[in-house]
Amino acid sequence: MSSVQTALKTKSMHDSGFLYNAFHAKPRAKLKTQIKRKREPEIIYPESDGKPMADNTIQYKKIVMIKENLERLFANDDTVFIAADLFWYTVKGNIHTKLAPDVMIAFGRPKGDRRSYLQWNEENIPPQVVFEILSPNNTTYEMDEKFKFYEKYGVEEYYVYDPDKIKMKGWIRSKNQLNEIPHINGWISPRLQIRFDISQQDLVIYYPDGQKFLSFLELDDERKKEKLRADVAEQLLNTEKQRVEKEKKRVEKEKKRVEKEKKRVEKEKQRAEQEKQRAEQEKQRAEQEKQRAEQEKQRAEKAEADIKTLMAKLKSLNIDL
User: Fold this and answer.
1) Does domain 57-214 have CATH number 3.40.640.10?
2) pLDDT at 28
3) DSSP-derived 3-state class of residue 158
4) How many CB atoms within 10 Å of residue 116?
5) Which of 97, 118, 131, 252 could make an S-S bridge to 103, C-beta 3.0–4.6 Å?
6) Do 142 and 113 form a contact (C-beta atoms < 8 A)?
């Protein structure tokens, strides 16, 4: 062992704050952190309470009708999340502060599957609209507790429908509390823009465009019709596409024919121009020939006149030829 090592060993034995802190303090702290992490159990947020979504077919049909029609209403908006009977946890680490609304709508949250709605993982955005469909097993105490929960944790619109009594109530948030809507019949939801009608011995809900919410079977039938319409539209599109392609080929062929005819006409035009030039030249040649003949005639007439004049002079001189 070198003198330096001996000195260090001696120093560490007498001064615990020297080598011990330098070489052991940090690893030991890290070990404590690891142990602490291992001791912290992972919190499991239950996804089910073992209870059915609905107690009877009437309640179930209403829940499905509202949920599926809202899905249809916001089908093209990827920032609206809609769920039925899904646990909504409001406080991280607390598995008891939760509720599973019959239907809930969260604006500003992406569509997609979830095992539960963990609010802290959803930018702390609570569902803004909640529906509850009563069953005979719902107690007044239970509904009061639900109301307090929704009021406390930020629900903006809360609607409760009793299919047995054909009664509906609604609440809308004002500041920090939910206030009952005085006249629910004909009410239009500020968030959803849907209208409620309970004047027909049942709850009827209308889309913003005035169409009625459809039942599950009606929605299924509508989907089939939409699929059929889509198939027919696709067939028509393919037929039109083929017709356009055929017309395109015909036009292309006609274009080539016109181009060929254009070249023929151009060639004919050039030939006609050449013929015109030749005719013009022929005309000029004929004109020149005419002028030459005229000059010849004039010379002949002059020569004849000169001969007559000469004959007259000779005759006057009594000279016979």
Assistant:
1) no
2) 54
3) strand
4) 17
5) 131
6) no
